[in-house]
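seq:
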Amino acid sequence: MTHHQSRNRAQDATHPTRESEVVGLLLAAGGGRRLGGRPKALLTHRGRPLVEHAVGVLRAGGCARIHVVLGAESAAVRARAELADCVLVDNPDWAEGMGSSLRAGLESLTGTGADAALVSLVDQPGIGPQAVARVLAAHGSSGSLVAAAYDGVRGHPVLFGADHWPGIAATATGDRGARAYLKAHGDTLTLVECGDVARPYDIDTEADLVHLE
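struct:
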């Protein structure tokens, strides 16, 4: 263990481990175009808005701090969902696609002291705390680049060390998010298999609503 790591572990109880330096970043701005224009954040899952469920998963997986990027009907989401313990980030450009929400979310982390962001999507309720915890455990430094894998195929959540944020923000366009960046940095990407504990389906169409409870 380095002197720097020893000093970090000796800090007060609010930062007892490296994991506390990772902020959960939930992308929840989508308008649900293929769901008749119903914002995904407000779909009902287990009696509450889906965005609440997604925040709970991040928290249960080990993320003490969580930023939530809102877009479509953000005022309604703020009014109906209990998100008091989260930092809410409005993305006025949400209609441009997930890339704009990722950029807004990473920008909101500037100056927070975080050295990594663990990114998850609001429309993947089949991915629970176990997958979050596995990806979080693979975090090592601000240079970390980690992704959950499902039968060897990269998926979410994804952990971006702060060293990667500028490059990701510069290439995140449309609905591609960080795909291009991850492909270009595949040699430094750590994949963590989660296929045994999570299912990476998306809630995109009316047919997908069967996955909600």
